[in-house]
Predict the structure of non-specific serine/threonine protein kinase.
Amino acid sequence: MSCFPCLSPRRRETSSRIEDSASAQSGSRFLGDSSESGKKASLPGGETSKCARSFTFRDLAVATQNFREVNLIGEGGFGRVYRGRIDSGQVVAIKQLNRDGLQGNKEFLVEVLMLIVLRHPNLVSLIGYCADGDERLLVYEYMPKGSLEDHLFDPPPSKPPLEWNTRIKIAVGVARGLTYLHDVANPPVIYRDMKAANVLLDDDFNPKLSDFGLAKLGPVGDNTHVSTRSRPFLGDRRKFHQLADPFLQGRYPPRPFHQLVVIASMCLQEQPHVRPIIADVVVALNHVASQPYTLAPDSKIMSSPPPPSPSGRVTGTPSRGRNGKTLARI
C-alpha cells in the first residue's frame, strides 16, 4: 500500500454518536404547503434561497403532461421520476414520491433542506419542491445521461460500455462531491447512500450525487464520530484481477488498475482509523487519472461481454473527514 503515502492511517479521535438534526415537525414548518406557485423557500434565520422554488401539484402535472408514461425516466421504491418542462422553459427531472414508499416525509424534508444549503458542481441541483396537500415531489436539474447504474449494469445493447478514462473521471468527481460534504460543508454532512443509482451524469459524463434523504449532519464541537453500520466486502486478495469489470474486456492500464485496488482496499478496512480521509482519496484518484488509457486504433469495444464474476465486487466508502476526524462507518 506504500504507493499512496497520502493514504497512510491517521490518529483516531474520540468518538461519540450524534442524533439527526432535522425533525419532521420543524421541517413541516419550514416548508409549509405549496398553496401558491413560485414561492421561494425560506432558510432558517430568515435568509431566502434564490434556488428552491415552491411548485403546486398542478404546476408539475402541466410540466409532465399529467405524468404521462412517455415522460417516465425512472422508477424505484421511492416513487417515479419524470422528465418535464416547467413554465420557464427549463427541462427538469421531477421525482414523485410514493405515499407508502421507502422515502417518507422525513427523508423528503431532509433532502430539501440539504440541497437548498449545499451547492457544488458534483451535487445535483434542486430546482424546487412540491408539498401540496399530501403530495410530495422534488424538482431537480435534468441529467441527460441518467444514472451510473444504467451504464454499468444495464447498458443498452446498441451502445459500448463506459471506457476506462470516463470511469476514472466519474470516480474523481464523486470523490470531490464527498470531499465537499465532509470537509467544506459546515457542519459536515454524512451522505450514507453511496451507490451507482445515486450518481447522475450530464452530457459530458460529469457526475453529481443525488438523493440526500438519508444524509445526516456530521460531528460538531467536541463530537468527532458518527457510527452507523459497516459491512465492508473484499474478496480473495489473490483474485484482484477479477475485480475488473468484464465489460472493459481487458481494455484498461494494469498499473492504474492495481492502484485503484489499493485505494478500494484501504477504504474497506474494518478499523475506521485505518481508512483514508476522502480528501486523500481524491489525491490518489487524481494520480490514477493522470495515467489515461489509450485504446489502440484497431481495437473495438464489444457491446456483449462475458457475464461478470460473482466475486468481482467491491463496495465501500471512506469514513473520515477534516483533520482526520472519523465521520462515519457506512
Observations:
- Residues 11-30, 39-49, 302-319, 326-330 have pLDDT under 50 and may be disordered.
- Residues 164-184 form the longest helix (21 residues).
- The CA atoms of residues 65 and 84 lie 8 Å apart.
